[in-house]
Amino acid sequence: MSRIPILVTGGGGMLGSAIAEIAAASPHFVPHALSRQDLDVRDEAAVMKLADLVGGGWIVHCAAMVDVKRCAADPAAARAVIVDGTRNIAALARTSGARLLFPQSFLIYGSGDGLIDEAAPPDPLSLYGALKAEAETVVLGTLEDPLVIRMAGFFGGGPLDKNFVGRIIPAMHRAMSKGDAVFPVGDRVWQPTWTRDLAENTLHLMRLNADGCYQMASHGEAAFHEVAAEIAAALGWDGRLRVEPVAAALVAHEETGPERRPDRAVMACERLRREGRDLQRDWRATLNAYLTHPHFDQYRPGV
Predict the structure, then answer these.
(1) CA dist., res. 15 & res. 202, Å (int)
(2) Any bridge partners for residue 33, and if so which?
(3) Tens digits of residue pLDDT in 188-206
(4) Which one-letter DSSP state was computed for residue 111?
(5) How far apart are CA 185 and CA 164, in angstroms?
(6) Taking the model in full, what pTM does it have?
(7) For the chain, how big is the Rg over CA atoms in Å?
(8) From the centroid of its chain, how far is CA 238?
(9) Helix/strand/coil (H, E, C) string of 35-97?
(10) Alpha-helical runs (H) found in 105-223
């Protein structure tokens, strides 16, 4: 059986690079990962030139302007990349006959106390979330059989990680280097999920020719300060730096209006589990496995 071609847009980012790496090691897929330097998804002509490359295969559309603050500061550019770029990619899928996988952000949901049901309508708090929700409607309205996976907030990629884990580790390390013994971290709640697990589960669904909408997240939930404490223990910082839980507003006071994030974003992931297609793991186990990567040796005492 011939291997299935996959075009990964945003292939130089955290999720795109993970999907390309896992796909390359699989006997089922041949990935073609294009970074934003390789492909500007806003350029319709450049996008449509890829039709022969992806015919009979999949497009995994990871390209987006993912910085919430940058989106708020430049809404026109954000719309051009997230919405118009997605429209171009959907047109490529329709023209080439390729299937489209659209990784969606949990930030399309608002804040709530309970699990976010898969039937819950998008209720984004940020401009980024609103644009991602609009892009999803483009995908669902344009194609007959897209696969949309609404993913939890993730970590992964070592030096590529620009999300919470990637930012908090050097910040905590700098605090220790200055002699700080206490480090405040907020109480916002999420489902920290490894990009490797997301990639493997996503490719599993693609092999099964799944379609429609899924939620996908690690098992369990955690406040940011719990993740920070787990990091401190994993990197050998116990006794040197104590993580102090504080209200999210005290450490994220600037995240208001078009930059606001939900205080608690926990998805139910019911369809994935009901169909026996859930390959996710406990967040603590995956975080600790991730932190064994040599990239993090620079932060370990005595290494």
Answers:
(1) 11
(2) 8
(3) 999 999 999 999 999 999 9
(4) -
(5) 11
(6) 0.95
(7) 19
(8) 29
(9) CCCCCCCCCHHHHHCCHHHHCCCEEEECCCCCCHHHHHHCHHHHHHHHHHHHHHHHHHHHHHC
(10) 127-142, 164-177, 195-207
